[in-house]
Design a protein that fits this description.
About 40% of the residues lie in helices and about 15% in strands. By secondary structure, the chain is of the alpha/beta class. The strands form 4 sheets. It has an 8-stranded mixed beta sheet with strand order 4-11-10-9-8-5-6-7, sandwiched between helices. Strands 12-13-16-15 form a 4-stranded antiparallel beta sheet, covered by helices on one side. Helix 8 links the parallel strand 5 and strand 6. Helix 5 crosses helix 11 and helix 6 runs parallel beside helix 11. It is globular and about 90 Å long.
């Protein structure tokens, strides 16, 4: 007598005949239904499984097409294949990862996860600073153009690019609006031909690393630094050299004799929030010109300066040596995936040629909505409101630290969404994180962001938290240490 298993639990969206087929397929693969075994008649089998005859017939037809069963007029329906366990090993084989994948995985910095009453960890979205109304109007307008056939006219190719497909740089209208914005607000020297729209800074980092780095070449980064940049550069197999950071940002005197790429965050050093002085910027540019390096300037906090007008970008001083990376994921919202890369035209041409291997063209609808946001003045109005909110929450954090944790020494941040806090001498980063966890509060330790030794510190993200929540989190942490 052939043993018929019970129906497996249904999967989301799974229709009944597919569930029956999956149940019988699983029984064959595990050897419950052996090769050559004859299945009961359709009515009997359907009754045993608790389904209609038509449902069973559909399931058996699928299994017959896959080769799991065979059907004959006199022999009935029989299992046609041996169990998978007869030829497959019990233990899974290791994945045949490439050297690139091994290096990329080794460079990941993972978060411990968890849900907390107060979460100061960096990287949190700031939904109440998102200009939902203006963005929705811009998207609706562009979606209307798409439905009327106008959108394709705004994203056509340009001479010198791939004329058989979409524009790898992004819509010209958006690049014109973005160039005007960067020149006026960030002190850049940009033309639309120097701009490539991206899905965010990380894609640009990966693309540049793959184009310019390989084993035997050298890249340099600030230390401490954004772990995503370090991982992208190191994954290529290039030698990665850390350059120490002090209270004035990266120290140019510690730059290596030669490198192909240098990653920096001069406007707001990540994670210390220091701003690179003009003299140091000039020294870095002189070094780059002397050794032929490209400077990757990550302007991640460009529009989040909340104490004064942001400093001009380094790219404006040396557009031939500085590749400017930026994103609107923090100042608008991560869901927009709107970023950009500014580079000399010869670099842009190379990236336009290699982009189709991994990404094709950027999203046209979001890109054109961004053009509207920039050109209409809606983005400037949004930033004025956002900066006021960020400044208030920043000041609330400093006041609450002074009240509840006076031994913790914050560096006031002129930009960005977090504060760098040096811990008292008796407290390690692990101790501070554990102390906060006992109070149901989460912090970000700073040590994973550095290669070189540094005093223990934590990062407190604050812009996503309301002032009362900020005060409550620091009060909780202080009480847990008593």
């Amino acid at each position: 007598m052939t043993l018929i298993p019970e129906l497996l639990p249904s999967l989301p969206g799974e229709v009944l005949h597919a569930r029956v087929a999956r149940t019988l397929r699983d029984a064959v693969q595990r050897g419950i239904l052996v090769q050559g075994a004859r299945l009961p008649g359709h009515r009997t089998l359907a009754a045993q499984l608790g389904v209609s005859r038509n449902t069973l017939v559909d399931a058996l037809a699928q299994l017959q097409a896959e080769g799991y069963v065979s059907a004959g007029e006199r022999s009935g329906t029989r299992v046609a294949v041996p169990p998978a366990s007869a030829s497959a090993p019990v233990s899974a084989l290791p994945l045949p990862l490439s050297a690139w994948a091994t290096r990329a995985l080794a460079g990941r910095v993972t978060d411990a996860g968890g849900v907390y009453a107060v979460d100061f960890r960096v990287g949190q979205p700031v939904p109440d600073l998102y200009p939902a109304g203006a963005w929705a109007l811009a998207l609706a307008r562009r979606a209307g153009q798409a439905s009327s056939g106008q959108l394709g006219l705004l994203s056509t190719t340009e001479p010198g690019l791939n004329e058989s497909g979409p524009n790898e740089l992004g819509p010209l209208e958006t690049r014109r609006a973005l160039a005007a914005y960067l020149n006026a607000e960030r002190g850049a020297r940009v033309t639309p031909e120097m701009l490539m729209l991206t899905g965010g800074t990380q894609w640009a980092l990966d693309a540049l690393a793959r184009v310019f780095l390989e084993e035997g070449r050298v890249a340099a980064t600030e230390d401490p630094t954004y772990p995503g940049a370090r991982a992208a550069l190191a994954a290529t197999g290039a030698t990665l050299l850390p350059v120490p950071v002090d209270e004035y940002g990266m120290d140019p005197a510690a730059l290596p004799a030669h490198a192909t790429l240098l990653y920096v965050t001069p406007g707001c050093q990540y994670p210390t929030t220091a701003a690179l002085p003009a003299a140091r910027s000039q020294a870095v540019i002189a070094w780059a010109r002397a050794c032929g390096a490209f400077i990757l300037e990550d302007d991640y906090a460009a529009d989040l300066h909340h104490t004064a007008r942001p400093p001009a970008v380094m790219q404006g001083l040396a557009p031939d040596r500085v590749l400017l990376l930026g994103s609107f994921s923090k100042s608008l919202a991560p869901v927009t995936r709107s970023g950009y890369l500014v580079a000399p035209p010869d670099v842009v041409r190379v990236l336009a040629g290699t982009r189709p291997l991994t990404d094709r063209a950027p999203g046209v609808l979001d890109a054109l909505a961004l053009a509207d946001i920039l050109s209409s003045g809606a983005y400037a109005r949004h930033l004025r409101r956002a900066r006021q909110n960020i400044r208030h929450r920043h000041d609330t954090l400093l006041e609450a630290l002074a009240t509840h944790l006076p031994g913790w020494q914050p560096t006031p941040a002129r930009a960005g969404l977090h504060v760098h806090v040096t811990l008292p001498p008796h407290l390690t980063e692990a101790d501070a994180v554990a102390l906060a966890r006992r109070a149901d509060v989460a912090l970000t330790p700073a040590a994973p962001l550095a290669v070189l030794p540094r005093p223990p510190a934590v990062l407190l993200g604050y812009a996503h938290l309301h002032p009362e929540t900020i005060r409550d989190g620091l009060r909780r942490t202080a009480e847990a240490g008593k």
